[in-house]
Design a protein that fits this description.
This protein has 15 helices and no strands. It is mostly helical. The model has no long low-confidence stretch (mean pLDDT 77).
Length: 347
């Protein structure tokens, strides 16, 4: 066997070994790298302030950790307290109100009435209250898994920020990638992923705040439900419905028809129609204007489907991975299309 062939075989074997070694962490490494690319402007701002790459990376990691840990921890704490203090009598009252409300539905909604009756027949308030601690432990287990992965993501995120330039240069030399193409790819990824990340963040905070203000006015914990709505709004199309529909049904079940009508109309008109349809595009347009050139802008519909596909394939972090894969694919297509006329001219 020639020396070159042996080196290639050895490299492939070691590469497979590296893949298996770090297999549990690949999603975390990829997400951390994409977040580092997306939040480059934050690190640059901290670097201009501190003149230290270490402190710029550390402060950026601290900001990102606050965005994930603070809301999730607050939600888990209050939700655990709620489940531990769950009152079976309250559940029984809700069950009776729902059955009474269903019985008075108009004939046109007979199909919905039948399905809701079947669902309620399977619901036992006493059993649910007894199993509330078990449900809390399951949610806690899921939360611990999520938070542990987040810890790894934050650790890799710091490394990606601090050593990002050296890592990129190393892979560029190893792959013998042309300077112009590699610069174009990193520029496109940085610009497009920044728009995706900041748009998602702005949408979650803005719509979560609007919902939180409404439920605070109704006497509920606005911060808690605002956080829940913010995370739910990350799911395209049905995200808001996941929050306001159960809230409306709960208000109907306890006899608060006015509150139910208010939260339904407020969410549909103020958040879904006005904020999501008119204000959100203005926010995204401002972000686009700051971070990406108009001629390089990727169609919002493509990003929309990329987020849906990412969530369906990779779960929560798919909202970052999906658009990244799509942006990289479109960038490589553009490079191939630009290079093709030059190759034809050379022939």
């Amino acid at each position: 066997m020639k020396r070159e062939h042996f080196t290639i075989v050895l490299l492939l074997a070691v590469t497979y070994g590296m893949y298996r070694l770090y297999e549990p962490f690949w999603i975390s490494i990829v997400v951390a790298s994409l977040l580092a690319i997306s939040t480059h402007h934050i690190q640059l701002g901290f670097f201009n302030l501190t003149r230290s790459r270490f402190w710029a990376s550390a402060l950026s990691t601290l900001v990102l950790s606050a965005l994930f840990f603070a809301p999730v921890s607050y939600f888990l704490f209050h939700f655990s307290v709620f489940l531990q203090n769950l009152d079976p009598a309250m559940l029984q009252k809700i069950d009776l109100h729902l059955r009474s409300w269903i019985a008075h539905l108009p004939p046109a909604l007979s199909n919905i009435e039948a399905k809701m009756e079947v669902s309620l027949s399977r619901f036992d308030p006493a059993t649910f209250a007894q199993n509330s601690l078990e449900y809390a432990s399951k949610i806690g287990g899921f939360a611990m898994t999520f938070l542990s992965r987040t810890v790894f993501i934050l650790a890799f995120y710091f490394v990606a920020l601090y050593y990002g330039k050296e890592i990129f240069e190393f892979f560029k030399r190893s792959a013998h990638f042309p300077q112009q193409e590699s610069t174009l790819i990193i520029f496109e990824m940085r610009s497009s992923m920044s728009v995706v990340f900041y748009s998602i963040l702005a949408t979650a905070v803005f719509e979560g705040a609007l919902f939180g203000i409404a439920v605070e006015y109704m006497g509920y914990n606005g911060l808690l439900f605002g956080i829940m709505f913010g995370f739910a709004s990350l799911i395209p199309v049905i995200g808001g419905v996941i929050m306001w529909l159960p809230f409306t049904l709960f208000e109907l079940s306890v006899g608060n028809t006015q509150n139910a009508l208010f939260i339904a109309l407020y969410t549909v008109i103020v958040i879904s129609l006005i904020a999501d349809t008119f204000i959100k595009p203005v926010i995204i347009k401002l972000i686009n204007k700051k971070l990406i050139k108009p001629e390089d802008k990727i169609n919002e519909l493509i990003i929309f489907f990329a987020i849906i596909a990412g969530l369906a394939t990779f779960g929560f972090w798919g909202m970052i991975i999906g658009p990244a894969i799509t942006v990289l694919f479109l960038t490589l297509l553009r490079i191939s299309a630009d290079a093709m006329p030059q190759e034809e001219q050379s022939h």
